[in-house]
Amino acid sequence: MVLFGMAYPKQARLNYDVAELKVYDVPFKTQYSERILLHKPMDQAGLKHLLNGLFDAAMRGSYKYHNPPTHIFIYIYNSKADLNRDGSSWVGMISRTMDKNEGIQLK
Predict the structure, then answer these.
(1) For the chain, which domains are there?
(2) pLDDT one-digit tens code per residue, 58-74
(3) Which of 16, 19, 51, 65 is the most buried (most CB within 10 A)?
């Protein structure tokens, strides 16, 4: 299977839903925020691959004021309960701001 232009094992086929996608696009900043809900847990390699693919897709998006976005925040959750708990129960995340690229963080 090819996901985000990269080959990946067959079992990875859209093993997630986009629970929330927000784009805030104004002259001083373009912020892309996405929360992903997995259908079943992924190993660390799968999480990294998914985060990199989602990040690349966000970078290639079409925005009015800033291409690529100045801020990107993508979070992955194992369950709806984790997603709704407090926002910090993610299992993987990637972020980028104008000042720095935080990269991938896994729990």
Answers:
(1) 2-106 (3.10.310)
(2) 999 999 999 999 999 99
(3) 51
